[in-house]
Each structure stands twice: as structure tokens, then as C-alpha cells.
Amino acid sequence: MERLSGLDAFFLYLETPAQPMNVCCVLELDTSTMPGGYRYKRFHAALARHLQAVPEFRMKLADTQLNLDHPVWVDDEGFELRRHVHRVGLPAPGGRHELAEMCGHIAGLALDRDRPLWEMWVIEGGARNDSVTVMLKVHHAVVDGVGGANLLAHLCSFQADGPVPLPARGAGPGHPLQIATSGLMGFALRPLRLATVVPATIRTLAQTVLRAREGRTMAAPFSAPPTPFNGNVTRHRNVAFTQLDMRDVKRVKQRFGVTVNDVVVALCAGVLRRFLLERGELPDTPLVATVPVSVHEKSDRPGRNQTTWMFCRVASQIGDPAERIRAIAKGNAAAKDHTAAVGPTLLHDWTQFGGPTMFSSLPRIPISRSPAYNLILSNVPGPQTQLYFLGCRVDAMCPLGPILGGA
């Protein structure tokens, strides 16, 4: 068995019927490259052959009332692939609008916690006869952004007829007594862990005060202005896709001497500014975005989510696009430096002490005049070479993250 970290379990505890913690990826596939030609049964069989290399697809949650720690992952001895793969047809005319509506519906459906926490939806009937869209949905307790990319890598290859990856070891079984005993040991060690985390937190707070005096801090949580899109959410999701030429993004990057992430934030800031101006609801102060930051290469903590968050001002109050992107770049540089000073493990360490009662109450807290943040912004570098998903050429890849109440 494998114990969930506090950060992994955080996404379980935070989940509500209106707030499913699903991490999704939409892949548009060219089926003309599939060896032997595309047939759903052939596609399904190819997936079955690859599953032995992806233990995340075969493990499920296990817990007991005597467990004083977070739940564990165990191998699902009754695993059935057919319960996780769904075949659906796209309504006519089968365009981007219909696809976006279907993806929004799928993203809002919670996963069954009695089974491994993932689903794959094979969406047929698009405008092109030689295309299929696949939507892969995995619970955030299983993967973060980087983990999701690594999971996808086991289903992809650089050639249409690439080899099947080697089997990987699973989480193993877990007896209720074993779960309770190891949970008791973990609970007993919490005071020792707290004695380590508190001094690190005090040092971080002291450093933040010094940075604030010098104007070198990221945006503070709960400093975001209220907007019409910061409120309670339902499980219904609206999805939209767009594409940009990376060469255009890099031209802007080079022109202003900024990063690709700065350009992405500036694009979003401009769109949000226009939207709020048209409604007559643009705040005088900048919107605040929270940006997930991967710490996989810096953290030595266990768990599948290796992430921290930084808070960025998106300069939505600035009308001039050139001035806006410069302000964003300056703010992002300070936010990155501040996040690095906080360290890669502080968030992970504190979530170890939280439980379902504490975290499950967060979605029910009334949203104040100053939300924790206004929106989530994330961008992940895509593959640099052509990929084939179970033999089908990948033409596009669009990630969809969970939506939290208030943002």
C-alpha cells in the first residue's frame, strides 16, 4: 500500500458535488496513423496492453474508521477496464462548440471513489472522419500537472507502431489492520514534525516582512478585488479552446525581454480587462492569479502532488499593453523569487496536519469582499516532438484543471 501525502489528500477533502477535483486532458487524434486502421475495439485493446505500465490506473483508495492518518492507495484486485473507458458520439455538426460542451459536461462529473480514480472518454463523430477526441480525467489526488504529463507519456510513443512499455509495480494490497497501525504511527509522529515546521514557518514570515518593506513580495492571499466571477460554483463547466502560434508568442517575449509565462499572463490580463470593462465592473486594483509551481525536482517529500503556489498581480488595471506586460514581468520576477525563498516543501508540510473536517469546510466558508485570488493561471510546456497516442497521431493537447469556489 501507499499512504497519501497531506497535499494529495487535501484534494480529496476539498471535493464537493459542485467542486469535483478532476484534472483533465483533451487530445485531438488523427486516427489514420493507427496500425491496422482505427476501430474502437482495436483502440480499447491497445489501451489494455499499456495499462500494466501505469500503476495509477489500477490503484484505488482504501481507509478504515480506525485510521488516524490520511487514506492509502492499494491495488484494485477487481479492476475492470470497461468501467473506466466510455465511448460517446459527438452531436451534429460535430464542431468545436459541440466538443467544448461535451468536455464541460464530462469535467463536471465526479469520479467513483470505489474504483481507481480515472476515466477515459472516447468521443467519436467529429467533423473529420479520420479524427477522434479523447478526454482523460484523473483525480487531483493522483496527479498534478507534471504527474499527469508523465502518466500520458506511458500511453504515447514517438512512432505510430511504438513498443508497449514494460509493466510497473503497483501499490500492493492493504489490510485494514495494517492501514490503522501505520496510520497510528504517522499520527504519533505529528508533534515531532510540527516542531520542525513551526521554526521554518517563523523564518519564512520574518523574511516576508523584510521583503514587503523592500517591495519584493508576491501578491498576498485575500488581497484580490471582488469580481462577478468570484463566487460559489455549480458542477456545470463552460469550456472553450483556442490556439496561438508559438512563434508569435516568442516574438512578443523577445521584443519585451520577458518569459513565455509573462506573455501568457499578459494575454489573459488583456482579455479579462476587456470583459470587465464591457460590464462596467473593472476593479481599480489588479486582479490576482494563483499560479501552480512544480517542485518535483526540488522536493524530497513523498506524495504524488509536488506543487506549491505563487500569487501574481495580473496588472488588469493598466490600459497600455506594453506597460502592462512590463509590470507583469516585474511582478512575476518578484513572485518567483519570493516563492523560491519560501521553499518547495512548506505547503506540503503544513497539509500533513489537515484532515477531512478542516479541509472539507473550506468550500463552505463565505466569500469575503477580498477573495483569496481571482483566477488560476497555469501553463505547461508541451511535447517538443510529434507524439502518437495508442498509435494515433496527436494533433492537439488541451489540459483542463479543477475550478475552486471563489475563483
TrEMBL record:
Keyword Lipid metabolism: yes
Residue ranges of coiled coil: none
One function term, GO molecular function aspect: diacylglycerol O-acyltransferase activity
Residues annotated as domain O-acyltransferase WSD1-like N-terminal: 4-264
GO cellular component: a single term: plasma membrane
Record-listed E.C. numbers: 2.3.1.20
Record field: catalytic activity: an acyl-CoA + a 1,2-diacyl-sn-glycerol = a triacyl-sn-glycerol + CoA
rRNA-binding among keywords: no
SUPFAM superfamilies: CoA-dependent acyltransferases
Sequence ranges assigned to domain O-acyltransferase WSD1 C-terminal in this UniProt record: 305-404
NCBIfam families to which the protein is assigned, alphabetical: acyl_WS_DGAT
Protein name: Diacylglycerol O-acyltransferase
Annotated organism of origin: Mycobacterium shottsii
